[in-house]
Amino acid sequence: MSADCTLVIRNPAELVAVVPFVMGYHPNDCVAMIGLAGARVEFAACHDLPPPDWTEADADEAAGAVADAVARQESRLVAVIGYGSSARVTPAVLRSAQAVRTRGLEVLDAIRVSDGRWWSYFCSDKSCCPAAGTPCLPGDSVIAAEATFRGQVALPSRRELTAQVAAVSGARRAEMTRATERARRRFTDLLAGDLTAEQYGRLVRQNGKAAVRAAEKCYRSGGALSPDEIAWLGVLLVDRSVEDYALDRAVGGNEWRIRLWTDVLRQVEPAYVAPPACLLGLTAWRVGKGALARVAVDRALAEEPRHRLAGMLHSVLGFGLPPHLMPAARRRR
């Protein structure tokens, strides 16, 4: 995934400190590959450490798949950072570094991070890389402050990131259930006449486009939709033409768009989750929030495994394709 904005790092300690902000959460039991252009962090890709029961061939295949995604990026310089115990991290990091090298990329450094300290696999100078490890920079370091100032957030773990796209519960869920029933009746009443297929499609498109524009106007000005407005939008987005209309408008690095589609995703009933989840995933991916895009698409596929756009976005994220390729991919749908 691309970074939200490039950050300049001056040493390995700053690189370790900035990774959680690029990823959107503090990694654990995983290997991160950080792409750099000189001293600028350009992107990060992350994969879990291989399970203990995996064979060497399985681990090599997984490392190769991530290395392929990294190689598709524009950066030719990569740092590999593993998070966890030495026994599990060391073979995974060295395997990943080798996989990257075989694809023609240069590995700047290979590092392990655990319990607030980091170790470099490439440095044997005990004056700068002691055997006991080097303490990680504090949470209020200059590089962390710079990332925070630019709007980047590092959540405690991926679990907190997943919670950002989880369905609302309690009183709000009950309210949305009632609002959805009203939206369904409204949709039925809208199409109650003796309509031709062309008239049906035109009526749905007209209402869908109006609902999308109204939602965008509301969030652009800092507002939020009511339960009835969210339910109505969710019902209309099920129509492919309305979903496509919203997708074509989901351009630019607007944080309000992320807020809009997060709110809709979290509040619609399960049957209506896939379209707003894909809209959030696409918007997040386009602004460099790859981790958020991933959990949004995962939510879409969990509710609707055969949803076409969700499947396509899953492949795009898995292959590590850069956002500028998306318009061409959309035209082929």
Q: Can you tell me about this structure?
A:
The chain folds into two domains: 154 residues, 3-Layer(aba) Sandwich (Cytidine Deaminase, domain 2), CATH 3.40.140.10; 168 residues, no CATH class. It is elongated and about 80 Å long. A seven-stranded mixed beta sheet has the order 1-3-2-4-5-6-7, sandwiched between helices. The C terminus is likely disordered. Helix 1 runs parallel beside helix 4, helix 7 crosses helix 8 and helix 7 runs parallel beside helix 9. The protein has 333 residues and is an alpha+beta fold. The chain has 14 helices and seven strands.
Extract low-pLDDT stretches.
Answer: 328-333
Question: Helix and strand string, N-terminal first?
Answer: EHEEHEHEEEHHHHHHHHHHH
**Tally of domains:** 2
**Which structural class matches the secondary elements?**
alpha+beta
* Quaternary structure state of the chains depicted: single chain
The major pleated sheet works out as: 7 strands, mixed
Roughly how many Å is the radius of gyration?
A: 22 Å
Q: How many strands?
A: 7
Q: Give the overall average pLDDT.
A: 88
Helix content: 40-55%
State which percent range the strand residues make up: 5-15%
General form: elongated
InterPro entries: DUF4192
Pfam families: DUF4192 (PF13830)
Protein name: DUF4192 domain-containing protein
Write the layout of secondary structure elements.
Blueprint lengths: L1 E7 L3 H12 L6 E8 L2 E9 L7 H16 L5 E7 L2 H16 L4 E9 L2 E4 L13 E2 L6 H8 L8 H6 L6 H21 L6 H24 L6 H11 L2 H10 L5 H13 L6 H13 L3 H14 L4 H12 L6 H6 L2
Parallel strand pairs: 4-5
Antiparallel strand pairs: 1-3, 2-3, 2-4, 5-6, 6-7
